[in-house]
Amino acid sequence: MSRKEERSSRKDEYNKSLPPFDTRSGYDSRTGIYHSLVKLGTKHEIPTKPDLGTANFVLSQFPQAHLAEARIAFIDSGTNRSVSYGELRRSIYSLASALFNRLKVRKGDVVFVLSPNSTLYSTICLAVLSVGAVVTTANPINTESEIAKQVHDSGAKLAISTLEDLHKLVPTGIPTILTSRPFDGNMLSIEELIEDCYGSPQLPQVPVAQSDTAAILYSSGTTGRSKGVLLTHANIISIMRLLFWQVDVSGSQDDVFFAFIPMFHIYGMIFFGLGLLCIGITTVLMQKYDFQAMLVAIQKYKVNNLPAVPPVILALVKHSSKVKCDLSSLKRVGSGAAPLSKEVAQEFRRMFPSVELRQGYGLTESSGGAAFFASDKDAKAHPDSCGKLIPTFCAKVIDIETGKPLPPRKEGELWFKSPTIMKEYLGNMEETSATIDSEGWLRTGDLGYIDENGFVYIVERIKELIKHNGYQVAPAELESVLLSHPLIVDAAVIPVEDEETGQIPMAYVVIAAGSELSEDQVIQFVAGEVAPYKKVRRVSFIDTIPKSAAGKILRKDLVSQSRHQLVSKL
């Protein structure tokens, strides 16, 4: 053997003797892959039985019959109506029987659901899934045009809607059932179908495989046209198991949860519509978010756990001291769907020292999961992180210029692999190929990094980075600075095209009622906090920042508004 071969052999032996990856960061320098450092125990093991559907899985986790009648699944905060796990099971069986036998809904049929949160929402979703049909959900505030596009794109055969939103579906011509019985009795309703088939002893016998499509959820389309994210039963079952683990490690098994997050969104559907039912949790529902009504409900129902979004946490920081409500029952607040700034997180902890605040991160394309804080201690120590990779997840941080994987602390595009990753974008192989590579890695489009201890940090959407004089400016960083101003209630930063520098940062700002703040004052305030190339160059005052139902800033609306303002000035 030559010396070169001998050295190569020794190197191979040395590499084999190394642990597979760094035990602090989870990073494997040989592959460029970050691994989750948490393994699921037997209790949280993801089922691999191929012929297991979401509905059967969820129902199998319900409390035993003698406990199900006493255990409350949902309380409607508006009406005070409660539904036990026993009632919920019977309603699912009844509706499934009606859909299958009376309406002839069959495996693969797509059912379009247009409704705010209600005690019927889970019943509808689980009944549809139990007959092998596919659920697609929409925001009730969507326009007729947006709804028509989704009905057409998803290939929906049947729609379920509230009476208030029915007019938006009429132009599509799709057969529609109302959620509640109308006063005139001229239309079929979910309530009537459940009553007519009440007492059905079991679900229709429809073979459902984990590989079958379960849901088509539409991405929010904050930077472009929304796309139908196709999730399988395996995706949803996997994420529900991971939610079970999350609740377990957080000590939240006996919490009363509050749900203002809409169930048509991945965050709300997985948390409240499906996942928490597997743990026997009681959830207090709010049909439509209202800050004051939320505080009243927390006090009335002694809510312990509030899964939230950054705008709501910001509202708690800025306004809750002025509201006379007892929030002492609150133990935990979660944040997801959009970045939570370090400054807002720290101010929340100062105002609510006994409440745990844990940020998480996920995408519709990853079934809502990716990173999470298992420890409140870690969340306090890393307030600008969104936690560590949850079990079953691997990640890469890819250099956006070279395409090479990066080590800890280096910024690049985050890529994920997990059993929760979507199957594809519906009917859009070009976008699917651009988002999921040949090895199954999901390109998130988010710029971020993972540190030497395995904590994940999100910097910005790559498409939303402002390119100024060759520098990259993150809108989220500037928004965080703006929100630290005592007179600024909310803010958003967008790029504005500039002939000399490429793009400049422009801020849209909401100021506190009765206060006065000039454009120059805002510009100077930001300039004092950031490097010169990052400073805001223009400011526009606005009544509200447009946001999606999940709390994401709709920058495309503001970009369009800025163009109109420029045209008006010209």
UniProtKB/TrEMBL annotation:
Residues 1-24 are annotated as: Disordered. InterPro entries: AMP-bd_C (IPR025110), AMP-bd_C_sf (IPR045851), AMP-binding_CS (IPR020845), AMP-dep_synth/lig_dom (IPR000873), ANL_N_sf (IPR042099). CDD domains: 4CL. Residues 1-15 have a biased composition (Basic and acidic residues). One of its GO terms (molecular function) is CoA-ligase activity. Belongs to the ATP-dependent AMP-binding enzyme family. This is 4-coumarate--CoA ligase-like 5.
